[in-house]
Amino acid sequence: MTLPKNKSRRVTLDDVAIRARVSAVTASRVLRKPEMVSADLRARVDSAVRELAYIPNQLASALASTHTGRIGVIVPSLTNGVFGDYLRALHDVFVPAGFQVLVLNSHYLAGREEKAVATMLGQFPEAMILAGVDQTPHARRSLQQAGIPVVQTMEMTDDPIDINIGLSQREAGYVAARHLFDLGHRHVGQISAPHDARSRQRLEGYLQACAEFHATPMLASTEEPCTVPLGGSLLTELLTRWPKVTGIFCGNDNLALGALFECQRRGIRVPQDLSIIGFNDLEDSACAYPSLSTIAVPRYEMARRAAEIILEITRGTGVRPKQRRIDLGFQLIARDSTGKAG
Amino acid sequence: MTLPKNKSRRVTLDDVAIRARVSAVTASRVLRKPEMVSADLRARVDSAVRELAYIPNQLASALASTHTGRIGVIVPSLTNGVFGDYLRALHDVFVPAGFQVLVLNSHYLAGREEKAVATMLGQFPEAMILAGVDQTPHARRSLQQAGIPVVQTMEMTDDPIDINIGLSQREAGYVAARHLFDLGHRHVGQISAPHDARSRQRLEGYLQACAEFHATPMLASTEEPCTVPLGGSLLTELLTRWPKVTGIFCGNDNLALGALFECQRRGIRVPQDLSIIGFNDLEDSACAYPSLSTIAVPRYEMARRAAEIILEITRGTGVRPKQRRIDLGFQLIARDSTGKAG
DNA sequence: TTGTACGATGATAGCGCTGTCAATTACCCT
DNA sequence: AGGGTAATTGACAGCGCTATCATCGTACAA
Questions:
Q1: Tell me, what's the pLDDT at A194?
Q2: Which residues in A241-259 are b (16+ Cβ under 10 Å) and which e?
Q3: DSSP3 helix / strand / coil % (chain A, rounded to 5)
Q4: What is the pLDDT of residue A325?
Q5: Torsion angles phi and psi, residue B27, rounded to 5
């Protein structure tokens, strides 16, 4: 029927066009490419938009233009401070650029990540950002077929799906452990939650350092998600099995903080009796007492770069940057929680 | 043209239908209401879906059905541990229910929140969840006109936009301060970052307790976003101005942790020289040394309830629950960081 | 004056899916 | 056998918007 549809439905572009006495196309143009429309009509449309409190339906717009304005992000954790900063960086870049950021949580599980990838692709994002490089084969294939920019972050791989920006977790783990050996420690332990692939790589770096210094690896680990309290119990476990430990590399700053608290609780002096080094350089680490030695990873910068690369590809006509692998490196931050052995 | 469109475009429902030798509608039904289709056709469609690796276009689906499957969430911070748990709860409920959660960050600014509301409404979410109750008048109006369930969380208001689920921050602040007075402290200070409305209300509770005990309010505050390191500097500021302080109520656990570290740094014994109570009961607080007294707020539960109420409204035909204001309360957790005065 | 070029505007045809209702078939009853 | 009911399936018409191309003037060169 050609009757005006007077249902109490939402205001559409047609309503605006009718009110402004122009065609729908013109109204659409005023909103997207105002410079193509004469000042006269533009003013009419603008005021119609205001009067009707018109809100464009992004859904319809996306369907018609095949430009969804969505960026899919999959992170393994929402609570971890690392990903807080990471997501903040993505929002900081994408939201002003008119994109919306869709976030899904993989809970550090490959299976959940695969599912999250499928869910996300159903939203037809214009790009995807993933944490880590260990996607399942099936997820890899889906991502490649999607034909959109895909950025793998946080670690490095020789065989990126598309673009890879991160740092060598293994090397960083090595440097952290090495820091303790260099300070003269010979009984150096490690605590971690190696269900996280990056945690495992840091562990490898630690093992490499152990081998180099002919030291026995001393490990305590858990499959549970990483938390501050866990640092305390893992330290306890480690000290029970290897009482001679004088230096400990914690898989991340949360564990390190928990270990530090546990030391305080037991009257173990840090660093006199035990040196502690963490990983990530969370905000709290610098102001702990003693301040925590750690490895600083450029998580904000990493996400920002990932976002900007995507913006470039999307705006330019899909041309990839020359460099598909970007290693942002890391930094050893030696503070007060690590000291000379002896 | 009626030629098969052989562009390298994505697989559509039509492709599936053709391959399964059924109509598009039937293919659609197999995916949404399989019980309506005979086993025979269902099997054919299912295998076509698998063979073609078909991914439904949610955009088109949403446009056609006016069911977007989106939930809009606006939080003031992504990094704060409180909202980490809060968002996790929302994901835990909504994702299995087939909804996607869109998150926008207001950075604790009313203006940014108003803008976020507008952006979000352009996505046509089926419901909105907000933190706090102090939306701008304009944002309130937009939300009311949207005709969708709106849940305001974290605090209580007498005049909710739609549904309100939270707790009395003022009362909780009062109880925290009162805890210190009850332990015999007479010089009780408060540090906070009152750019956050809820922080201000806790402050009011503190002031009320001060009045009741005829104590002089002793405050240090900042307009910066709340962080652990900030707790240290605010404590320093407070102690400089009021050296006699023996008890301190921190606006949240991050500040409390920072204050605790600062005490350790200065050799101030907690709780012997200074009692500290925080707010929120973050995970770390229980395992700090000494463990932090605090107020536990049901942030996970609050978000979960909000999500479930929305699910009920959305599934039932839009009927609101009888109770539009739900006070989930809070709990004083007295640990080792607070002790008797003297 | 005529022809050309270009800028502004509109008509049309979908984007990929689902709501609706009509058509078809199978089944059962009298 | 005829008629009625229910279970399946399909045809059609949009959802609200934008890409595309046709159309209409108007300005300017020839």
A1: 86
A2: ebeebbbbbbbbbbbbbbb
A3: 45, 15, 40
A4: 97
A5: -60, -45
SS3 A148: coil
B261 reaches A (C-beta below 8 A): yes
Q: What is the spatial order of strands in the sheet that B188-192 belongs to?
A: B218-221, B188-192, B247-250, B275-277
**pLDDT reported for residue B317:** 66
Find residues 65-94 of chain B whose CB sits inside 8 Å of chain A: 68, 78-79, 81, 84-85, 87-88, 91
Q: Is the pLDDT confidence value at A338 over 70? A: yes
The burial of B261, by beta-carbon neighbours within 10 Å (0-12 exposed, 13-18 middle, 19 or more buried), is given as buried
Smallest Cβ–Cβ distance between A284 and the set B101, B145, B228 belongs to B228
Q: Does the distance separating the beta carbons of B78 and A87 come in below 8 Å?
A: yes
> Nearest nucleotide to B26 by CA–C1' distance?
D9
- Give the whole-angstrom CA distance, residue B273 versus residue B239: 12
Cα B285 to the center of its chain, rounded Å: 19
Put simply, the answer to whether A105 touches B124 (Cβ < 8 Å) is no
To the nearest whole angstrom, how far is the Cα of A123 from the nearest Cα of chain B? Answer: 6
| Rounded distance between C-alpha atoms, residue A22 and residue A42, angstroms | 10
Quote the tokens at residue B64: 């056609």
DSSP secondary-structure letter at B46?
H
pLDDT tens track for A171-229: 999 999 999 999 999 999 999 988 889 999 999 999 999 999 999 999 999 998 889 99
Contact B287 A85 (CB under 8 A): no
Could A264 and B56 be called an inter-chain contact, meaning their C-beta atoms sit closer than 8 Å?
A: no
The region, left, alpha or beta by phi > 0 then psi within -120 to 50, assigned to residue B57 is beta
- Give the largest CA-CA distance in chain A: 90
User: What is d(CA A41, CA A34) in angstroms, rounded to the nearest whole number?
Assistant: 10
Instruction: Give pLDDT tens digits for A244-280.
Output: 999 999 999 999 999 999 999 999 999 999 999 999 9
Percent of chain A with pLDDT over 70: 97
- Which parts of chain B have pLDDT scores under 50? 1-7
Question: Residue B215, exposed/middle/buried by CB under 10 A (0-12, 13-18, 19+)?
Answer: buried
User: In this structure, what is the dihedral angle of CA atoms B315, B321, B327, B333, given to the nearest 10 degrees?
Assistant: -40
Of B88, B257, B265, the CB nearest to A78: B88
Nearest to A289 among B84, B122, B264 (CB): B264
